[in-house]
């Protein structure tokens, strides 16, 4: 079922166009990387604040509120530029364990970011003990592992 | 220049690194992760200067509080990038995007220094306010464009077949 879905994606005319058009993949990959940098920055500034580092003179809630839209829109850009890459190399992705690990961790990361991390970031300062630090470390760990698995899809698959 | 690249290419430690199964994936992955740390934080500093985000954070807070982390990322990025170059110097010698990336990094560094020693000296006057001087905004825009260019040319280095025609005509690799 899953394999046939990936075979269907690989067989789309868009996938063929992506592979045949010389500049399509490089341009999309470059845009993906720029979006990754924006996403990493938006996440890191808040995570570092949760860890008691970085912009400590500004409240975590204010930073999180301001950087939320940057995080969301850069993730949308990551998705929009990532999907064509998956479509055009669907079978390579299907057979890569790193792709599946990446997808699983992205789902965990999204659920974590929009539930626990959001609640902790928007909570009143000093009311949650060590939880902000735990959440900051987990968030950095989750999103770092996503970029590690992503890089390894291209290198080791 | 070419002989220096060839000399490094023939060094036993360069060959050992090149032939190692784990070195390249490890170095490249660390290079990307450290780029996220460095470029991600610098991007938000630049966007603060431009006035796109973090407008309620005093400008001077960012270099003090975020730059040590950004510089740590940059240090790791330089080391891993240097080792990647060391392991395959001849792969990069005639690569247009490699030289474009080096040039963009040099200009971005110069832009940073110029901003630090010229515009930033008067930061106390515009630290808290929303009105950032045009020179600081300009430095932010230029920095954003240059570092985006570094990221893009860095990715394009993998596409040896997509060099500009005029670059190929220079026949540097021959």
List keywords for this structure.
heterodimer, A: 157 residues, mainly alpha, 0% strand, B: 174 residues, 9 helices
Tell me what the structure shows:
- The complex is a heterodimer of chains A (157) and B (174).
- With 157 residues, chain A is mainly α.
- Helix content of chain A is 83%, strand content 0%.
- Chain A has one domain.
- In chain A, α3 packs antiparallel against α4, α3 runs antiparallel to α7 and α6 packs antiparallel against α7.
- The longest helix of chain A has 29 residues.
- The two termini of chain A are 22 Å apart.
- By secondary structure, chain B is an all-alpha fold.
- Chain B has one domain.
- Chain B is built from nine helices and no strands.
- In chain B, α3 packs antiparallel against α4, α3 packs antiparallel against α8 and α6 packs antiparallel against α8.
- The two termini of chain B are 13 Å apart.
- The chains are: A mainly alpha (157), B mainly alpha (174).
- Chains A and B meet through α3, α4 and α7 of A and α3, α4 and α8 of B.
Write a brief structural summary:
The complex is a heterodimer of chains A (157) and B (174). Chain A has 157 residues and is mostly helical. Chain A has helices spanning 2-11, 13-20, 24-50, 60-88, 90-94, 97-122, 131-156.
Number of helices of chain B: 9
Total count of domains of chain A:
1
**What's the helix count of chain A?**
7
Oligomer: heterodimer
Query: Average pLDDT across residues of chain B?
Result: 94
Helix content range of the residues of chain B, please? over 70%
* Class computed from helices, strands and strand pairing of chain B: mainly alpha
The ordered string of helix (H) and strand (E) elements of chain A is HHHHHHH
Radius of gyration of chain B from the CA trace? 19 Å
Uncertain ranges of chain B: none
Mean pLDDT of chain A: 95
Number of strands of chain B: 0
Q: Radius of gyration of chain A in whole Å, from Cα?
A: 18 Å
